[in-house]
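Sequence, structure tokens reproduced for reference:
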Amino acid sequence: MHGQDDARKYELESYLQEFTDEPPIILHQQPNGGRVVIEKFEDIRKCVATSLCGCRPR
């Protein structure tokens, strides 16, 4: 997960963990390694069974 609204982000984290019994990966908590957000998402999605991306305009 990645986003500006921390309250909603952690609310979604809690919901997903209850729903899947797995801890969600929050992108900003992962090392950047010189990557931009989409590159981090692409790299991490290779290591998980399910990936989810939601977008909204500012």
User: Anything to note?
Assistant: Residues 6-45 form one domain.
